[in-house]
UniProtKB/TrEMBL annotation:
Keywords: Ion transport, Membrane, Potassium, Potassium transport, Transmembrane, Transmembrane helix, Transport
Listed InterPro entries: CHX17_C, CPA2_transporter
Source taxon at top rank: Eukaryota
Taxonomic classification: Eukaryota, Viridiplantae, Streptophyta, Embryophyta, Tracheophyta
Any single Pfam family the record assigns to this protein: CHX17_C
Protein name in UniProt: Putative K(+)/H(+) antiporter
Domain Cation/H(+) antiporter C-terminal: 226-370
Origin species: Corchorus capsularis
Length: 411
């Protein structure tokens, strides 16, 4: 346009031609955005590339002795301590932890999205502080931990693409992303939650969403953590238990695995039942002489008993509770309570224990989701981010109990 204006001023073109050029530019600009949105399908491309390589990574498929690769996503500096604690919990004498740390920065303007290795000359203050914290931790710990820092600058809408590709290229078994609840004055919380949903949907690795309520590792010398695992069965819960098996090797981790059996329920797929039983047996055999790890079985009926039992966990003084996002068709309450779930990306149980009403909002929660073969998990899972502007029908744990009790009475 500047060249065109200069041409008008030098009488090389007249006013009518200039007007046509301006109209043509406006028309091209107005058509470009919808055309790009129509033809550019990053989700389809991710699904296609996933389908061409059906290799998925999970904690169950990763040998317990050797290298464990974890990709940690950091949005804010507040996310650092909780994720370092999770990394430390997995660092044992038998395991080498390779941690890929990705600092996620929102792209503003029309610059090109970037995913690159972090260098100190990058000049971004918050990134420098985040990476310095991980570097100092890796140097101070007695365990075998290496940190490889990355920085991702992209719009939140497509940020998951870079992370998914990096995880696939590095053969990462576990991706950890922080949970971001909508807060007053915070504009991008829903966008980041959408990022989490997209990670659950398209990542070729197990995805863990961390609801951090003050999970802090001061240093490896003073580290201690009391962890509980709720196990009902299914692929997601098995990933949670597989993580617990690794963590139980840490001398400063106290692990409690609680297997819930609902009535006389058995999964219609006998293979699923066998996989559940085998993994529980593996945990028991591995920790037969470990006083810091225990496994218990709880038999409950569906409905109010499960809610009351979950409420009783408040007396356990746990630092972290690990649970699978989905328990398959084990719990009828998943279908009954789905419309009451405020954060569907956490699952029914994860949403309940991750609420601020549970234990006064002092217990951190890690929600695990196992990847389905071939990616494109959206075809098998229902993930959505509710609008933060609407009034949720669920406000507290007691509200859930009241609603479910009234439902049982009507039935």
């Amino acid at each position: 346009m500047a060249l065109t204006a200069n041409a008008v001023m030098s009488n090389q073109i007249d006013g009518q031609i200039f007007a046509l050029i301006v109209v043509a530019n406006v028309a091209m600009a107005s058509l470009a955005t919808p055309l790009v949105d129509f033809f550019y399908k990053p989700l389809d491309r991710l699904e296609t590339s996933s389908s061409s390589n059906l290799t998925t990574m999970s904690l169950q498929s990763t040998p317990s002795i050797g290298e464990l690769r974890i990709l940690s996503c950091i949005q804010k500096e507040d996310d650092v301590h909780g994720i370092i604690t999770l990394i430390e919990s997995n660092a044992t004498p038998m395991t080498i932890v390779c941690s890929y740390v990705v600092h996620l920065l929102e792209l503003v303007g029309r610059a090109t999205p970037v995913l690159a290795s972090y260098t100190k000359s990058g000049g971004h203050g918050s990134t420098d502080r985040v990476m310095r914290a991980f570097t100092n931790y890796s140097k101070s710990t007695d365990q075998s931990i290496t940190v490889q820092p990355f920085i991702s600058i992209a719009p939140y809408k497509t940020m998951y693409e870079n992370v998914c590709r990096l995880a696939r290229a590095k053969h990462v078994a576990l991706i950890i992303v922080p949970f971001r609840k909508a807060e007053v004055g915070e504009m991008n919380s829903d966008q980041f939650r959408h990022f989490n949903v997209q990670m659950q949907t398209y990542a070729m690795s197990t995805v863990g969403i961390l609801v951090d309520r003050g999970l802090t590792c001061v240093n490896s010398a003073e580290f201690s953590c009391k962890i509980a695992v709720i196990f009902l069965g299914g692929a997601d819960d098995r990933e949670a238990l597989a993580l617990a098996i690794r963590m139980s090797d840490h001398p400063c981790v106290k692990m409690s695995v609680m297997r819930i059996k609902v009535g006389e329920y058995r999964h219609e797929d006998e293979v699923e039942n066998q996989l559940d039983d085998q993994l529980v047996k593996e945990f028991e055999l591995k920790n037969k002489t470990n006083d810091s790890a225990q496994c218990s079985e709880v038999k409950l009926k569906e409905g109010i008993e499960i809610f009351n039992w979950i409420r009783s966990l408040e007396n356990g003084n746990y630092d972290l509770i690990i649970v699978g996002k989905r328990q398959g068709s084990i719990l009828k309450l998943e279908g009954d309570m789905e419309s009451w779930t405020e954060n569907p990306e956490l699952g029914t149980i994860g949403d309940m224990i991750g609420s601020e009403d549970f234990c006064g909002g002092t217990v951190s929660v890690l929600v695990m989701q196992h990847c389905v073969v071939g990616g494109g998990c959206s075809k098998k899972r229902s993930n959505s981010v509710p609008d933060s502007s609407k009034k949720y029908r669920i406000s507290s744990f007691s509200t859930i109990l009241k609603h479910y009790t009234s439902t049982l009475e009507r039935n």
